[in-house]
Amino acid sequence: MSSAELAELSDKLMLSTVVLYIVAMVAYAADLGFRRRPADAETGAEVEVETKTKTKAKVEVKVAAGVGGRGGADAAAVAVDDRAAAAAGSGAADADDASQRREVDWARLAVVLNVLGWGAHLGVLVTRAAAAGRWPWANMYEFLTAIAFAAVTAFLIVMWRSGARFLGAFVMLAAVVALGVANIWLYDSVGPVVPALNSYWIAIHVSAAIVATGAFTVAGAATVLYMLKSRREAKGGAAEGVWARIPATGTLDRLAFRVTTFAFPIWTTAIVMGAVWADEAWGRYWGWDPKEIWSFVTWIGYAAYLHARATAGWKGRRAAVLSLVAFAALLFNFFGVNYMFSGLHSYA
Amino acid sequence: MSDTPDTTDAAPPGGRASAEVRAADDARADNETRAADDSRAAAAAGASTPQGGEPAPAGLGVLGWLRWGWRQLTSMRTALVLLFLVALGAVPGSILPQRGQAPERVADYFEQHKTLAPWLDRFSLFDVFAAPWFAAIYILLFVSLAGCVIPRAFQHYRAMRSRPPAAPRNLLRLPQSASYETDATPDEALAQARTLLRRRRFRVDAGETPGAGGWVAAEKGYLGETGNLVFHLALLALLFALGIGNAFGYRGSVLVTEGKAFANSLAQYDQFTPGRRFDSGDLAPFSFRLEDFTATYETKGERRGQATDYVAKLRYRETPDAPETRYDLRVNHPLNVGGAKVYLINHGYAPVFTVRDAKGNVAYQDAVPFLPMEQRTYTSEGVVKAPDAEPEQLAFYAILWPTAVSAKDGKQIVSAFPAALRPVVTITAFKGDIGLDSGTPQSVYRLEGIGKTLHPVKGGQKLLEPGQTFTLPDGSGSITFEGVREWASLSVNHDPGRLPALVAAILAVAGVAASLMVRRRRVWVRARAAGDGRTVVDVGGLTLGHPTSEFDDIVTALRGPRDAAGESGPGAPATAGSGGADASATEPKE
C-alpha cells in the first residue's frame, strides 16, 4: 500500500473508532442506568471492597446482613467484578432472573464494542506510523489520538484486573471528546517531522508522556466519580438510581490511587527523559520552557496528592481535590501551553 | 508519654514521621507513627527546660520555640503547602516572558505595559526562577524534606539491621490472620514456617513466649522505604547538581557564517552567560571552522518547504596543536569537545556584498548575516554598513528572497521556497552618517538615524541577482551582490552538573518506582500443642497499606495440600481478615 492509501485508511479507521466508542459509551451508560438491582447493592459493594481490614469488614458484613442479606452481597460482587459475578451470580439470579440476563447483555455489548473500537484505534496509529514512516506522535493530532488510545488501554486493563466497568461510560466519553477535538481542530496530514523531533527520544519521552497521561485520565475519571459520590453520601441519599451502580467511595478512591501510583513514576520518567532529550537538542536539560514548567506543576500536583493521601486530615476529599488540580494542570499542559504560549515545544 | 528528657536522643529530631513520603501508608500506620511523633513532641518540650526538670507552663523558651518551629517546618502539612506554593510560583514563569529565556520579549512587554511592567519587575516576575521568593520556597521545601528524610534514613538503617519485631500476643487480632490445626509437632510446624518464609525471601527470627509457645517472626519489603528515601535524597542531589551547573558552567552563543572560524574565547561570543563561579580560564581552548551548512526541505506535497534536516559541517581542533577533525553537527547531535557541548540552534542566510565608494575603492566586502522574517519562505532582511566609504558613509537595507518569484499581481516579489534556489535581493541605499563613530553600540541588523543623519539615496532602490552591481544614481558609490552563503548559530555550553543531575534523576525514578510498588510486610507464626496431640498454628500478617494476596498464599503453603480441605477453628475462618482469596487476588499491591 502506498503512503497515501495508508493515510486514508488511517483516517477511515479513525471514523470507525469514534463510532464504536460512541456506541460503547451508550452501552456502558445503559449498563449503568437500566440495570435493575436490589436496593441494598450499595451496602453490598461496601462488603466486597472493605474486606481489606478485618474490623471494617465485620461492620460491613453486619450492615449488609441487616439490610439485604446474602443477595446483597452477591449483587455487590456483580458490581465490582464480572468474574466474581459469574461465581456468585446464582445467588443474585434468584433475586431477579430476567433483569440479570439483560444486564449481562448490556455489559457484554459495551465491552465487545469497546475492544473492537480499541482495535480500530490501534489500527489508526499503526497505519499512520506506516504512512509517515516514523513514530505516530509527532504533532498534536497524533499526540492526542495516542493519548486517547493510552487512556482506553489503561481502562481496559483496569477493567480486566479489578472489574471497574462502571468507569466505561466516562472513559469512553473522554476518549470520544479527545478524538473529536483531534479531528475537528487539530487534524494534520501525514508528513515528515521537523529536525528537532527526528530522534529516537521521541519513542521514549513522548511514549512515556502518552502512557502516563492515559493512566492519569482513568484516575481522573475515578476521582471525579469519587467526588460526586462522596458529595451524595454526605447528603445522605447515596443508594438510588445510577448511584447504586457506582461503587463506594472507598473503592473509587483506591482505584484512583492505584492508577496514579502506576502513572506517577512513568510521568517522572517522561520528564527525566525529556530533560535528557532537551540536553541533546537544545543544549540544556532544564530551561523553564512553558511545557517544562507545566510538566513540573503537574508533577508537583500529583506528588502533593500522593503525600496528602498518606496524611491524616488530608486524605479523602482534600486529596481528591489535589488530584483533580494536578489533572487540570496536565490538561492545561497539553492544550493551554501549546496554544497560548510560545515555547520550544510549539510544534503544532 | 512522660516529660523525661532522656527520651529525646532516642527520637530523631522532628521526624515527619507520619509517613511523609510513604504515600502507600495506610491510616493505621499513619496513626501509629503520629502517636510516636506526639510522644516525641512531649519529650522535646520536656527537654527544653533542662534546668527546672519540669516543663515551663507559660512559654517554651527559645530552644522550645526553635524545636516547635522545626517540627512545624518538617511537618507534612507544611510540606504540602510548600509543594503547592512551588507549583503556584512556577506558573507566572510560563505566563510572563522571562529574561533567562527571552530577554527581547521582556523588553517588548516593558514597551507595551509601561506602568504594570516595573511593578511586576519589583516582584522579580520576569526572573521567576531566579527570584528570591521562589528560592525561599524551594529552599524551605528542601530543608523540610531533609529534616524529614535524613532522620528517617537512620531509622530505616537501624530497622534493616535489627531483627524482625517479636510476635504480638494475639495474632488473630491482626488485619490478616488465619488459624489451623496440624498433625505436626509445634517445633516441626515452626521449622516449616521458617523454611517457607526464608524461601520467600523474608528475614526470619524466632523466639518463645512463656506460656504461649514458640513463634516465628518474618519481615520483608525494605526496598519500599529504601526507594522512598533514595527518591527524596536524589531530589536533594538533583538540586545540588543544578546549583553546581549554574555556578561553574557557562553558556555562550555565536553566529558563524560558512567559511568562518570560531575559537573558544570570551571575545568571540555574541552572547555569553557565565556561572557565578566561572573563571575565563575554564574555557577549553578548542576552535572550529564552519565549512558548509545545508538545510534540506520537503519539496513535494502539502508540507512543501518544511525543513527535514540541517547539517553544519565543522572542522574542529580540541587544542590549538591537536589534529583537525571533521564533525557533522546536527540538531539532536551536539559536538562534545573539551568538556563543552556545541549545539546547532538556528540558521539563516548571509548574502555577500562588495561596496565601492565614490572613488571606486572597496569600502566593504563580506558576508552579512540576515535575519529570517518568516520561517516558511525564509525571506530575510539585513543591513550593510560601509563606514569607510568616502566622501560620505554608505549604508544599505536589503531583503533577500531565497527563491524569488513574482507574486500573483505580477508586481511584487515573494519567496516561494526557503532554499536559495533563485536568490534575489532588493536594495535600498542610504548615505550620510551611520553613527558608528559616536561610540554607542549599534545592532548589526538595523540602521539607525534614518531621516536624521542617514538619508535615502534618490532612486537608490534596485533588485539584484547574484553577480549584478547597482551603481547609485547620484554617483556616491556602488554595491555588488556577490552571492549567498549561510550562517549557523551555535550554542556552546559547559555544565559540570549535567552528569550528577542525570545520576540523581535516574535514582529518583528508580526510587519512586520502588517506593510505590514495594511495601513492608510482616508475618508471624505461632504454634502450640492442642490437647488432642495436634498442633494449633496461628498466622498473622501486617502489611503497610492494604493487605495483599501474598498472605493467603503463605497460609495455603503453610497448611500444605493435605490440610487444604480446611478445618478451621470455630469463629476463625481460614483467612479471616482478607475477605477471601478471590477478592484479594484481584487487588494488586498498592
Automatic annotation (TrEMBL), chain A:
Q: Where in the cell is it found?
A: Membrane
InterPro entries linked: Cyt_c_assembly, Cyt_c_biogenesis_CcsA, Cyt_c_biogenesis_CcsA/CcmC
Its protein name is C-type cytochrome biogenesis protein CcsB
Which GO molecular function annotations are given, in alphabetical order? heme binding
Primary location class: membrane
- The residues covered by the Cytochrome c assembly protein domain are 137-345
Task: Spell out where the chain crosses the membrane.
Answer: 12-30, 109-131, 143-160, 167-187, 199-228, 255-278, 293-312, 319-341
Membrane topology listed for this record: Multi-pass membrane protein
Which domain of life does the UniProt lineage start with? Bacteria
TrEMBL record, chain B:
How is this protein positioned relative to the membrane? Multi-pass membrane protein
Superkingdom, natural source: Bacteria
Q: Name the residue ranges with Basic and acidic residues bias.
A: 22-40
Instruction: List the biased-composition ranges (Low complexity).
Output: 566-590
Give TM segment ranges.
79-96, 130-154, 229-250, 499-518
The alphabetized UniProt keywords are:
Cytochrome c-type biogenesis, Membrane, Transmembrane, Transmembrane helix
Chief localization:
membrane
Q: Name one Pfam family in it.
A: ResB
Q: Which GO terms describe its cellular component?
A: membrane
* Domain ResB-like intervals: 76-544
Q: Which GO terms describe its biological process?
A: cytochrome complex assembly
Q: Does the keyword Transmembrane helix apply?
A: yes
Q: Which InterPro entries match?
A: Cyt_c_bgen_Ccs1/CcsB/ResB (IPR023494), ResB-like_domain (IPR007816)
Localization (cell)? Membrane
Keyword Transmembrane (UniProt): yes
Segment Disordered: which positions?
1-53, 559-590
**Do you know which PANTHER family this protein is assigned to?**
CYTOCHROME C BIOGENESIS PROTEIN CCS1, CHLOROPLASTIC
Protein's recorded name: Cytochrome c biosynthesis protein
